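Subject: Protein entry, chain in single-letter code together with its fold tokens

Category: Structural biology, sequence-to-fold work with a learned token vocabulary.

Notation: Tokens come from a learned vocabulary of local backbone shapes, not from coordinates.

Start of record: The labelled sequence and token lines come straight after this line.
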Amino acid sequence: MGLLEDLDRGLFDLVFPRDCAVTQEPMETSERLHLSAAGADRLDRITDPRCMCCGHPFEGVIEGDRACPHCHELHPAFGRAVCVFRARGPARRIIHRIKYRHSPFLVDDLASVALADDLFRRHLAGSVLVPVPLHPARLRDRGYNQAERIATFLAAHVPGCRAEFVLRKQNETVSQTRLGRQERRKNVAGAFVVIDGKPVDPTTRYVVIDDVLTTGATLHACALTLRKAGATLVDAAALAHG
């Protein structure tokens, strides 16, 4: 946790009291520093029924087989992905602040709220959390990798978990934001490799961690890399879907 990342803490708070990142109202006394109880209640949560593969929620009445349009063509290398929030409204704004407005400190509060979801906690329990890596050039520009911070926070709060930085991104891909599904898959295909000297244990369950699952292409590419290195139990998780 760097000094510049957490400049809003300690003595700084006495001069400039924090407001909730969602409600913009002053924060109450809480373990969370930037997300109040009222703000957390405004986050759009994913509930069942949801896709048993990518975690996207089904809406309306479910009849017959559930064909998920978000992952049915992907054939993901991960077994199951679980997400907590829909990437819209306040959750989307927080994630954009984290990624594009130099606000990594918001990760801890968003991840803390995510861990109140029982399914999410059970999905992570006892696993090795592998964050999606950034290319070194992107890491230099941003100054941090939000997926690493998410994985580190989750590992510290979920029994039996540990975070391991197993993967590196060898290709500097273009941003996925404006790409379609097929373009996203091609963009990240072969982009990730296992770091030299990092063992991959076939008896260990790995969960690839990212901030958002959109099409699943990035998480699939990371999971595929782990499987090619010998992993047999690979799942995925993200804070938000959409």
